[in-house]
Specification:
This protein has 23 helices and 26 strands. By secondary structure, it is α/β, with parallel strands linked by helices.
Amino acid sequence: MAVGEELLEGLAAKKVKSVAARSGARLPEGLVELALWMSEYYVCPLGMVLATMMPSAVKRGVGRRTETLVDVAGDVGLAASEVEPRLPGATAAAWEAVRGLEASAFPAEPRALALRLGLANVGPINRLVERGLLKQVTRDTVRSRSEAASLELLGGTTVARPALTAAQAAAVEGVSATLGSFAVHCVFGITGSGKTEVYLRVIEHALAAGRSALVLVPEIALTPQTAGRFVERFGDVGAVGKEGVRGGVAVLHSGLSAGERHRQWAMAASGRARVVVGARSAVFAPVADLGVIVVDEEHDASFKQDQLPRYHGRDVAIKRGQVEGCPVVLGSATPSLETWANAVGLPTGEQGSEQRTPARYRLWRLAERVGRGTMPAVRVVDMAHERREAALTGSGRPGAMIGPTLSGALGETLSEGGQAILLLNRRGYATHIACSSAACGWTLMCHSCDAALVLHRHENLPRGGVVRCHHCLGEELVPAACPVCGRPPVRLGTGTQRVEEELAGLGLEPAGEGGGGTLLRVDSDSMDSARDYFEALSRFSRGVIRVLLGTQMVAKGLDFPNVRLVGVLSADTALHIPDFRAGERTFQLICQVAGRAGRGEHAGRVVVQTMSPHEPAIVLASRHDFESFAEAELRVRMGSGLPPAARMARIVTRDEQHERAWAHAEGLAGELDRAAGEQRLGGVRVMGPMDCAVARIAGQHRVAVEVVAPSAGVLHRLLASVRAARLLKSDAHTAVDVDPVSLM
């Protein structure tokens, strides 16, 4: 009896079909093991994890088809004159041409083979099949209508292979020495220090050993430039040429069409692509013989998924490296404090003491920029002072986001032929609509969320636009008057749309859809698709766009040698939110966007506008001094018992009734406290219930319980025990977030 036949209960075995045969795809054993770990670690149903691992386009078989190819069947050693009966002239010439091809040219699509052989049609190919010299074979493949477009967007100029610096060579040698075994390496390099070249060289070693590689980047916008480097070094991205599908690199991210996503996934699964580059979910790419995993910009919060399963791409990559037995490389100019603590250890002695916990990762420092680039000079501008001066002298524009210092620097940069990047991490035109009467106090709020509505300009709509909630995405027209007192509303706060208008007032022409203009706004309102992002970066790279204004999308990973000025319009945007990582995020954002300047032969400069010029995160970021910031911040975290000095889980209960959400959270907090006491888990702190900073989203009230434990093992013993008792589960009313990166 075959395995499983006892479950058929009389049903004919031949009527049972394989799930893998039906879907045409399966997960490798290593990914199944990874899914089991994720289900336990992130307190998530296994089915949800498995569903996340395999894209829906793959499960639905989008673009899958069976194609007929031809392969050599006869003896290629026989000349046309030796084949009986004798071949007609054109067919004989085709056979002689076939004999001159390498074995790797087969199997081939008939039309592509005819084109390669210089034939006018496939007639001679068909006659060679009839004579038995070629044979027909079938192959399942995936085709996408967007193949040509993806290639066009990823194309780039060939970059000369650079010589390695001593620090780069040491990192490459150190990481490569661990190929074939699990190890975690932190490549800490200032912006422009050549971290990508280190990744490329390590991957070369892995490929030479017959293994494959996986590279994760945090944003879709980083994918084309990063992927372009890998395409140039390792091969085409699934290019379709005379020989059929060829190439060594696949690209996976959410901006792909369904058919293209399936095609890229199939290339990775079949081994036709030995290098996979992609965003967060690419960590699940079905590559075999994995030799190395690279996580670029590992500190980036977009590696954390905010929906079930709430996994962190970096941490899952580390676990996958352990499962596959390969090294993992974490690279950043501003490492997350979790990674940094693992690379250098946590400070345990007094200030100035060298006592630390043991390091778990291997650290490689790249302290200098490669080539002729130098770190840009950073000037911190006190905007309160500049605005007072402008008011006293009558110069400048009241409420302007671009102060005199930045405005002057921008004018100089453009007149000298340079380019500029301006960062404001806030979308829209105005962040609040309020009554013009201070005595009234009315502010336009979302009906479904505890959040103010943001004005987005649309000239063809009444009163100039719509107000939108950035949480539930609800929209309504701008009100004509205050509903409380009838006075006209005012628009407060500034977003990227308003800055775009301000720059136009300085003489910069916004770029339209049909081209023209030198100023381009890059945010999720102006970019409708991944292709829009790619084209925007391409235009900036060619110098068509002179000034790039955007949100954090423009802050990291981009390498344009003519960028001579970077302006941070408001360094305080994320500094004062109620989250213990606010200072860390502010430091990282300033350092990352500052690093876009001065990468070519011209010196770069950075202007950071702030209302908090003496804030340590801003001062140390202006000095490019990550290690001093990290040391001070780690000591604060140690003193307060917060990650990375401890481990955290956050549980948010949700309900349309606040009382029910609160009661649910209160019950969970009690059960967690009780379980910690029964299991004698020392050092556990259960905080809450407490209303979330954004207490209501999409009509659901949100109440949080935070659990802090001294180690991951203690935290997960606690969560597992409450989960096993069926008191904790991830569902529509309860969100369990292990290792949260946001407490909003």
